[in-house]
Amino acid sequence: MGRVGVAFSGGLNASEIVECAALAESLGYDSVWMAEGHGGDQFATLSAVAARTSRVTLGTCISSVFVRSAPTIAMAAAVVDQISGGRFILGLGSSHKVQVEPEHGVPYGKPVTRVRETAEVVRRLLRDGRVSYQGEAVTIENYELWFQPLRPGLPIYFSAVFPKMIGVCGEEADGVILVFTTLDTGAEVRQHIAAGAARAGRDASAVDVTSLLPAAAADDPAEAFDALRPGVAMYTGFFPRYNRRAVEQGFADEAAVIAEAWGRGDHEAAIRAVSDEHIASVCIAGTPARCRERVEAYRASGIDLPMIAPMATGPDARRMAEATIRACAPG
Prior knowledge:
Oligomer: single chain
CATH superfamily of the largest domain: Luciferase-like domain
Radius of gyration: 19 Å
Order of helices and strands: EHEHEEHEHHEEEHEHEHHHHHEHEH
Number of helices: 14
């Protein structure tokens, strides 16, 4: 088995994530990734993971370009990179208007432009130690670092869902971070990356294609599917972008029912509306053997780095996460 990553987004506290990350490294995982949202500070957690591990690559999946300034992102990235000895990848994304504005009180606009310009500011600041920048979405009068980054440049990946942003990844990112992908996604994404790379005169094969894959493993497949149902319901019901993606993937009627239920606050109804077929299409679920088969199927479909994202909540969250990490381990 080739590269496999593991990503965390909530359900576990920071100390539990560190322990799970150490387990993942011992089992041969390639990388450990941390989302943010409501799951804890990603850079602080990854610094703790860096101190506990020695080999795995560490990454954000993703750091929102709206809730931190570009210089703050650059400094945080440089610190984790230094503590880890150069093992860090900065994953950037625009997040969602339905999160950024009501939850953070920050205006949301020009998301693609803001991602591109934030990446440019980060690159310049790490390379030169200071930056002045006037863009359409980001303006920095002057900012300078008072320390020397370990690396003057580090890999930057962009999250993407639809063709426009995937093409941008081909133009200027070192990798793309996908989510809720089917086995048809890899080939489609590579076409858009190739088009973007051609526009920029880049080699499309240099763009790492990764995907977050919500995952749950259990001896009883029904238990695994039930563990994933709330997450699929929340993403499909709350985020317009992922609802649209579910429609495009053939679950239009289901997506409409989920969105309607979620919108009126009936989350239980939304969860019940998530079909096993939907989960099987965009997640890794089932027995350990089935999960390993699914990871390999994603790799064969064109995903360079499948990143399992254990769905684990409640008092038994750590046991659930560890079971999934063990089930999907490479080797």
